[in-house]
Amino acid sequence: MDLFDVRNYQFTLPEELIAAEPLAQRDRSRLLVVNRKSRTWEHRIFSDLPEILDPGTVLVANNTRVIRARLLGEREGTGGKVEFFMLRKVDSACWTGLMKTGARVVPGFRFRIPDRHGGWVAGEVIGREESPAGVILTAKFSRDPVEADIGEVPLPPYIVAKRKDWGPEELETYNTVFGTQSGSVAAPTAGRHFTPELIASLRSGRMDWQELTLHVGIGTFKPVSVPDVRDHLMHAEPVQISSEVAASLNASKRAGKTILAVGTTTTRALEGRSVPGSAGFELVSGMSDVNLFIHPGAGYEWKFTDAMITNFHLPGSTLLMMIASRIGDLGFTLRVYEEAVRERYRFYSYGDAMLILDR
Fold this sequence. Notes:
Blueprint: E1 30-35, E2 40-45, H1 49-52, E3 58-62, E4 64-66, E5 70-75, E6 81-91, E7 94-101, E8 110-114, E9 120-131, E10 134-141, H2 145-148, H3 157-162, H4 170-174, E11 181-184, H5 196-204, E12 208-214, E13 237-241, H6 243-254, E14 259-262, H7 264-272, E15 274-277, E16 280-283, E17 286-290, E18 307-311, H8 318-327, H9 330-342, E19 353-357
Parallel strand pairs: 1-19, 3-12, 3-14, 4-11, 14-18
Antiparallel strand pairs: 1-2, 5-6, 5-8, 6-7, 7-10, 8-9, 9-10, 12-13, 13-17, 15-16, 18-19
C-alpha cells in the first residue's frame, strides 16, 4: 500500500453517523479501545477510563477555549454584508482572519459589527497576505471583539447544516469543561468527553492530569487536497507550555510513566515541542508555533506520546494520518474505522472517542 497516496486514506462514512447533537452527558460517549501492538480492540464507555488506564498514567490535555470567532456585520458606507472570521490575535484589538464580502478587500477597507447594546465595533483592514488557506487579512478594531463579545459560535459547517436550533449557549457545550485559555476557532474535541467528576476520579486513581495550550486554527480539519501527502502544507498553531508543566512531564517521562495525549492538538504540541535531552526526548517550555505533520511512510520517530485519546476523523485528513502513524499500520487503522462504522459509532466533533494504547 502506497502510504503517500491520499486515496489510501479514504473510507466510506454514512452521513447519518456524523453527529450534529452532543450527548446530554459528556462521559457517556462510546469508547473504542485500540491495542496497537496486539492488533485488538474492545468496546467500552468513556466513563470506564479510570478502570482501563494503568495507575501512574499522565493525561495531558489542551486547555484552549473556543472564542466567538465569526463576526457578522456590514461594510461602512454601503451596508453590504461582511463576515470576518477571526483566526489569530495580533495585539489587544488586532486580529488576522478570513473575510466574505461582495467587494474586493484591500487595506483601508472599513466595516463594522453590531454589539449587543445597540452600538457598533468598527474595523479596518490594515494588511493582506496570500496563503494556502486563502487571503489572510489583518484587521484593526475599535475594541477587542472577544472582550466586546460580538461574535457568533464558530460551529463546524456539518453541524450548522444539520441543525438550526443552536444559539449563543452552544459555546459552553462545544468547549471542554477545563478550557480556560481563549484563542481557538475550533474545539479540541477529544477533551469534550471529560467531566469534572471523571477528572477527579482519574486523579483519585493515582493518575496525573496536566494541561498545555494550543490554539486551534481553521486549517486543523482541512482535508489533504494533493495526490501525494508529502506535498501538503501544514498550518502553524501557537503552543504554550509552562515551565512547571514541562518540568513535571519531563520527570514523568524519565520515570517511565505513560504519557497519554488527550487529542490530536495535544499530540502535536507534545511532539512538536520535544527535543533530544540527556535521558531521551524532553519538552521545552515557553511559546512558539508548531506546524508538525505526522503521517505514515515518513519514518517519524514518536518522541513523547505513548498513548492517545481522539475522536473519529474525516477521510483523507491529516488527523486520520496522524492516527494511522500512532497505530503503526494503515491497513489496521482502516479496519478499526470500518469497525466503528459497522458498530454505528458517532463521528466528528460531537461524536464518540477512540483510545489508542501501546499494548
